[in-house]
Amino acid sequence: MFIRCLLVLLAGTHVAAAKCKCTPLDSCWPSSGTWTALNASVDGRLVRNEPLAKPCYPGQGYSAALCQQVSTNWFNETWVVDSPIGYVYPLGANSCPPLNASVAVYPICELGVAPAYSIKATNADDVAAGIKFAKEHNVRLVVKLTGHDLEHRSQGYGSLSIWVRSIQNGLKLQDKFTSADGSCNSDWTGSAVQINGGYLWVDIYKFAGDRGYHVVGGADRTVGTIGGYLQGGGHGALSHFHGLATDQVLEYQVVLASGELVVANACQNTDLFTALRGGGGGTFGVVISATIKAYKDQPVLLHNLEVIALPDDSFEDNVNELYKVTTDILSEYPGLSDAGWAGTAWFTVGEGLAYYGHPFLSLLEDNSTAAVDKAKKAMEDKILSKLTKYENGATLKIESQWKQYNSFRDYIFLPPFNPIPAGGTSIMSSWLFDRKSLESPSGNTTQLLQTLNSGNDNIPLMTPGGGATLFNLVAGGKVLDEVPHTSVSPAWRRAYLLVEQIDTWPKNWGPEAIKEKIDRATHTKLKAMKDFSPGMGTYSNEADPYDPDWKQSWWGDNYDFLLSVKEKYDPDRVFWTWKSVGNDGWGEVKGGGLYGPLCETGTSAN
Ligand SMILES: Cc1cc2nc3c(=O)[nH]c(=O)nc-3n(C[C@H](O)[C@H](O)[C@H](O)COP(=O)(O)OP(=O)(O)OC[C@H]3O[C@@H](n4cnc5c(N)ncnc54)[C@H](O)[C@@H]3O)c2cc1C
Ligand SMILES: *[C@@H]1O[C@H](CO)[C@@H](O)[C@H](O)[C@H]1NC(C)=O
Ligand SMILES: *[C@@H]1O[C@H](CO)[C@@H](O)[C@H](O)[C@H]1NC(C)=O
Ligand SMILES: *[C@@H]1O[C@H](CO)[C@@H](O)[C@H](O)[C@H]1NC(C)=O
Ligand SMILES: *[C@@H]1O[C@H](CO)[C@@H](O)[C@H](O)[C@H]1NC(C)=O
Ligand SMILES: *[C@@H]1O[C@H](CO)[C@@H](O)[C@H](O)[C@H]1NC(C)=O
Question: pLDDT-derived band of residue 15, with 50, 70 and 90 as boundaries?
């Protein structure tokens, strides 16, 4: 009898273990009354999501005018980040694009991987209510700020999303940093900005800039602050000068899987603090506030360089010259970086359009001619002097321009704002390059550039089907310093350059063509970069999610520590995302479809 009971119990546990999160199609999905109760507990801030482009489709809710509005804004990142289910980067499976339904390519319009419900959270209690509900009702939980995540980690079929963008409890400048309880002031005696909610970098640039400060944030102004960006590492034009964005974090306020609100800094919950400084978003808890270092603003010198292969009859030869000159430029990057220059360069080779371009900046000590001349001289010695031998006027067009700004604030806000179009279909592969691989490579740099630009059918820069290489000269300098309580890939501390290859495809491509493009990104392009700068790693937020060694590439030897923090703070895996620390054992069961429930798979996640 005892044995029988035991067997029944074991069988019971087994069945319970092979479980899935409830989806709207399951009988275990919470009743509408249950959702209403949740809504009441968050003061009416629960949204039942509808596909954004639903007005474009026949049936209830059809509206040509609304459809037009959605279509117009579909690629407008400013509009996208202000929707609970707006995603700047394409949906993992976009099951309702704003197509004119009469085209009939997409006969149905479903939410797909967009969350079923979103809580427009305004405080820690709303966040805790969402976590508690998801746990109690076995509903998949998602955390979203702006929806920029390239690995779709703020999406999830049949999920409840905690939308932190709507937490807006103000920005505070501290002339001298003071921790939440005043007892943990680390060794930072400078100023700080406390970001109490789901603000964007543009908000902080403005807030700090108006008060004479600058901070390390994203190059793209609509990226979120306290979410995936800060928690995953964060680079931008200023990281070279001050360290990674996550290195700037002095303190977080975090709602844990238990629902408890805690402070994490160098004195308390230090393991959590470390994990939230590089370990990635959506994994350890929901951050509702971050305090970051602020620096007295400084004048900026900008250098714009454009090297264009002349699109004439000898275009192919001109492109070969472009490869050569770019190879020469790359070898000078470490020296240029040491001399105080940083930024992101673009390189692309397509039919009729092939160029290298960089808007690089240098922070100046002051407005003096001496400071400007010193910065100019470094650029002239390292780069411009190397270009003279290519300046015969027959193969390449070379343009060099200087521009001076009184402050970083002016540098950000004076030029016209060109938003990055949202919603493109593309794959990114990336790798960090150390000094040696750039200055004295054992491989052939020209061949690497050719490999990166292969397979794009000679379609130029970011046109669907084409591709581009980004040379993010955002490391070196202060990024090389070891920073206590951080968990980014240790490769960052040896890196000068983050190379990113972006390959795009047209919207009408079928799954096989897309797979071929993705496979080439992983098995040809990423592999070539790994061989070129061996033993390095990459940036988890801008990485190839199909990298077979993603854990090693994104976190290196820090992974095991991060996993132990995950075990401690979220043993029940309340927070689960694709490609994150501790996501093993669960996966999306798609059964050949585009999306499906999140289930315990028992195997390694991949
Ligand atoms: C157009 C574009 C430009 C970019 N530019 C840069 C750049 O200049 N520098 C750079 O370093 N990166 C850049 N990125 C990458 C960017 O850092 C990542 O996409 C990052 O994940 C965005 O974070 P988010 O919170 O805004 O996005 P989301 O997609 O909302 O969230 C990203 C991840 O963080 C989690 N998350 C969100 N909010 C919270 C929270 N409050 N607490 C816990 N988890 C949370 C989500 O669950 C998800 O896993 C860019 C991306 C895009 C698409
Ligand atoms: C939640 O309550 C608010 C306010 O009463 C209401 O406008 C909203 O539609 C409700 N949400 C859901 C999902 O019922
Ligand atoms: C959809 O296409 C039809 C036929 O081309 C056109 O008349 C209609 O205005 C379009 N609707 C929208 C919302 O673009
Ligand atoms: C993009 O959206 C924002 C916010 O809705 C709006 O203010 C802006 O005008 C839009 N831009 C364009 C080009 O439509
Ligand atoms: C640089 O000069 C401008 C005016 O030309 C001035 O407004 C600014 O404060 C100066 N900046 C510094 C750091 O000296
Ligand atoms: C590198 O490869 C290019 C293109 O294949 C070739 O022209 C060049 O000679 C090679 N350089 C070296 C140093 O081998």
Answer: very low
CA of 205 from ligand 4 middle (Å) equals: 20
Q: How far is the CA of 424 from the centre of ligand 1 (A)?
A: 16
Is 74 near ligand 4, meaning CB less than 6 Å away? Answer: no
Domain containing residue 494: 300-557
- Evaluate: CB of 368 within 6 angstroms of ligand 6: no
Same domain flag for 507 and 532 = yes
List b or e across 262-283, with b for residues whose CB sees 16 or more CB atoms inside 10 angstroms: bbbbbebbebbbbbbbbbbbbb
Distance 444 CA to ligand 6 centre (A): 6
pLDDT(585) > 80: yes
Residue 18 predicted with pLDDT over 60: no
In degrees rounded to 5, what are phi and psi of residue 503? -120, 130
| Shared-domain flag, residues 293 and 412 | no
> What is the spatial distance between Cα 41 and Cα 595, in angstroms, rounded to a whole number?
30
pLDDT bracket for residue 604 (50, 70, 90)? low
- What is the token pair recorded at 36? 């209403």
Residue 605 included in any domain: no
- Measured in angstroms, how far is the CA atom of residue 406 from the centroid of ligand 4? 29
| Domain final residue pick, 254, 276, 297 | 297
Q: What is the pLDDT of residue 435?
A: 98
CATH number for position 96: 3.30.43.10
Identify whether residues 209 and 81 lie together within a single domain. Answer: no
d(CA 325, CA 30): 61
**Count: domains in the chain:** 3
pLDDT by residue (tens digit) across 246-259? 999 999 999 999 99
Per-residue pLDDT band at 72 (split at 50, 70, 90): confident
Task: Judge whether residue 540 has pLDDT over 50.
Answer: yes
Looking at the structure, tell me whether residues 60 and 207 fall in a common domain. Answer: no
Q: 82-106, pLDDT tens digit by residue? A: 899 988 776 666 678 777 545 555 5
Question: What is d(CA 379, CA 381) in angstroms, rounded to the nearest whole number?
Answer: 6
Spatial distance between the Cα atoms of 129 and 168, rounded to a whole number of angstroms = 18
Among 43, 46, 126, name the best residue to mutate to test ligand 2's pocket (greatest count of ligand atoms within 8 A of Cβ): 46
Is residue 79 in contact with ligand 4, taking CB distance under 6 Å? yes
Among 166, 197, 219, where does a domain finish? 166
Atom 13, ligand 5: which residue's CA is nearest? Answer: 366
Q: Is the CB of 63 under 6 A from ligand 3?
A: no
**Residue 181 is assigned to a structural domain of this protein:** yes
